[in-house]
Write a structure and sequence with these properties.
The protein contains three helices and six strands, in the order βββαββαβα. By secondary structure, it is of the alpha/beta class. The protein has one domain. The longest helix is centred in the middle third of the chain and has 11 residues.
Amino acid sequence: MTVGLVDGGLFDVVGLGSDGTLVAGECKYTTRQMTEGDLADLERTAREVQWTPDGGGEPTYHYCCFCRSGFSDGLERAATERDDISLFTPSDIVG
C-alpha cells in the first residue's frame, strides 16, 4: 500500500484503518493552545493524502489533536459537537 501527500506535506500522526478510516494527528508541544485554525490545517492536509481504502471509495476521516498546553474553547466545542475529533493532553496519554 502506498500513501502519499499531493504537496509533500507532513503529518505528526497518520493511521490507515482496515475499516477505511484515515486517522490524522497533529502534535503541538508549545506554550500556546491548539485552536480551530490548527484543526483546519490538519483537515486540509488530511484531504491531500492519496489513499484508497481496500474496499474502494473515499476514506472517512478522524482527527486527533495532541497539545501540551490544551485547547481553545472553540476547538473543545468542535470536539464536543463532532464525533470525528479527539483531543489529547499529556495527562491523557501518560496518566
